[in-house]
């Protein structure tokens, strides 16, 4: 500083800039820097007038408040980076929970699916597993809650389903098992709705059970009519004593069932109760001779177009069709 006062130049200014970086890295508060400046000036014979003394005292008070605010801001920035890092890890882990394809061995079934999160992390979950006696289980779930706790709950459900591979439990008993698991291990603020189906290729019968989830949409190809599929059963994670109902549906060639989450059926700016009318409208305009995946894509595009492409909630659709 004294060199600059005696011989001002770019070299001294550059040295000052480098010093400021070093002081910031060492977390030296600005009021200490100002105090050092005043001390050096006085020690080298520079006499400050009374007005300058008062102005420096006023500036010192400002720097104290500024320094505290700056340190708090830096601390928040560090916490934000740490949180972003944790969220990125959670997002990466969550993506690994979803099956990349429905690569099943049931040649009489055509399955299509899509799942799009509204934000970085999704509260929707879909999965499939092979049950005992060569049956296929497919589920769609919606975790009431977002972020990392929802991802952890999703992970728990996924690995629980893996333990049920080749298990011969019926759909309602699987929901009973998952209900007790969520109630015991998940965050108390989290609840899970789920629609669970099991397909038996020997009989072409689809059994299903619901835990407070949206009713599945059934299409009967011969009559070209739609119907809702629903059963009695409370959402998972509320009551250990709840009983889940199970129903059975024989599937014929061309019949299909659509599982979905509530984000799909919500209409923008509408106060009307949510139903699956938006999916029925989409299917009326679809070419039902196309593969299931193409029909699912059509339903999804129709739904988000109705919302002006603004996703306020996660969207998941799974279609199960008998060939």
TrEMBL record:
Native organism is Aneurinibacillus migulanus
Q: Does the keyword Hydrolase apply?
A: yes
Q: Name one GO molecular function term.
A: phosphatase activity
Q: Which InterPro entries match?
A: Bact_Sigma-Reg, KaiA/RbsU_helical_domain_sf, PPM-type-like_dom_sf, PPM-type_phosphatase-like_dom, PSer_Pase_RsbU_N
Record key words, sorted? Hydrolase
Query: Is DNA-binding one of the keywords?
Result: no
User: What PANTHER family has UniProt attached to this entry?
Assistant: PHOSPHOSERINE PHOSPHATASE RSBU, STAGE II SPORULATION PROTEIN E-RELATED
Q: Which residues form the PPM-type phosphatase domain?
A: 106-322
Can you name this protein? Answer: PPM-type phosphatase domain-containing protein
Pfam families given in the database record: RsbU_N, SpoIIE
